[in-house]
Amino acid sequence: MKRMGILCCCILTLVLSSLPIRAQQPAASSPRAPSAASASSSDSAKAVADKLNQLDQRVTAAQSNADNAWMLVSAALVLMMTGPGLALFYGGLVRHKNVLAIMMQSFALMALITVLWALVGYSLCFGGSGPVIGNFQFAMLRGVGVMPNADYAATIPQLTFMIYQLMFAVITPALITGATAERMKFSGTCLFMTLWFLLVYAPMAHMVWGKGGFLNASLGGRFPTLDFAGGTVVHITSGVSALVCALYMGKRVGYPKQPMPPHSLVLSFIGACLLWVGWFGFNAGSALSSGGLASSAFVATHFGAAAAALSWSLAEWLKNGRASALGAISGAVAGLVAITPAAGFVDPMSALGIGFVAGAFCYWMVTKFKAIFGYDDALDAFGVHGAGGTIGALLTGVCARMVINPIYGDGKAVGGFDGHWGQVGNQIVGILLAWVFAIVGTIVTLKIVDAVTGVRVTEEQEIQGLDITQHGEEGYNLEA
Amino acid sequence: MMKIEAIIQPSRFESVKDALLEIGIDGMTVTEVRGHGRQKGHTEVYRGREYTVDLLPKIKLDLVLPDNLVNRAVETILKSAKTGKIGDGKIFLTRVEEAIRIRNEERGESAL
Question: Number of CB pairs < 8 Å for A and B?
Fold first, then answer.
């Protein structure tokens, strides 16, 4: 795609620059002194050079504007995944006494992480070139303006890159609230998310996507891990941390004896569909440009979601004799999670395959695996994001193709299907590191939060519901 | 005076109400209730977790009638509420000692 662009530019330049040359010809052929003729030919050469320069600038500006338009839309789409997407998806799955609390946790993160991001977050993720974490180069967004940061995205303003990456930092901790749902204090949630963002998200994002990061695939990493849009950074970290939180906090009062059915699958359904649409910004936007790579990621995203919705439903149908709406939407989300690291590296058929595997695998994780170990991951943040992210990251190493994304240079094998099976090893290193960071970081964070604000509400508050006890309001005032 | 408490299937409520209106009974109190008798509930499965829902939604009608209307009312309810399946509900009759209209403090059958 890039080459095509350059070719078009060259042809355009030649055609346009030939016009002034012709215009100069009658002057040159007119009977004049030879010295005058040579002066005019050097003038025309300068004019050509100026014109070429101008065209070059215009072509660059046009590409920059096209990329910027897509990236701004993508940033907005990713924000839409948190609110309303995830807020509705999770909101519908809790009991009605906790609906506002879970939605408020997502919404609070939209505000909290944004402020943190402006102060130090962006800089810790994308400043400097350390192996583990960034520096304070961009603290307070110093030097982050309309000029592109060529290390990451050479055609869009760094402001756009910054705001786009922020939306990932917002949704990642929000995913964890699925495991802590219906029993975590609001004060504890705010403190937990602040610390978790600094201790787990920032280093993982830098290691995988930051310049010089230990796992970076294109900017000099020791173990180049392929993670197009956040399989390790977003889904493994949040999913595994969710499991740690669920184990640390213990079960909800009455779990698993007391029924705790979702209070509105209609809300969850709308939320899941918004997530699906928003995910195009998440994955296709991760191309950081609006060219063919974005199209490839877009297609893979959609195919992954569809295949997983089918395979989860099929598994459920075989097991229970019915395909449920909750199963179908959960499957789609599992597929979207699994295709996240792979989109932009795999062809459409591999995307179908990854989705199909992820749907069935996550179904098994939330039904069988969870029941065997008996932890209360209330809304299956681990079963979908941790499990889906892990299987997706692994399969990315298998299915990545150089024809889709020659990330190691032209003609160099990328994934297992290209013959580069060592990539699967790199993926395993990336996965393990993400697991370790998530586990250690979350335990440290929980200990601190427990000592400062406390993590869990009292049993009485839990029974009464978090809406009233944490926020002093109710989601549904039917008699009002 | 008798009180008729009829617990019926929600799906039969409209026809019971219409049938009672036809025989001239237009006063009733209706409540949405949940319960079960011999009818077994059903199971719901959410992400592999099975819940047995054994309290099923029903409609409860309360009518207080003069003695001469009670038999006809009971027959009408039986006819219009019956589907022939388990879960059709029950009718309970109790004697009522007094009825008082709040507006004008009328007492007895004329208050009905």
Answer: 23
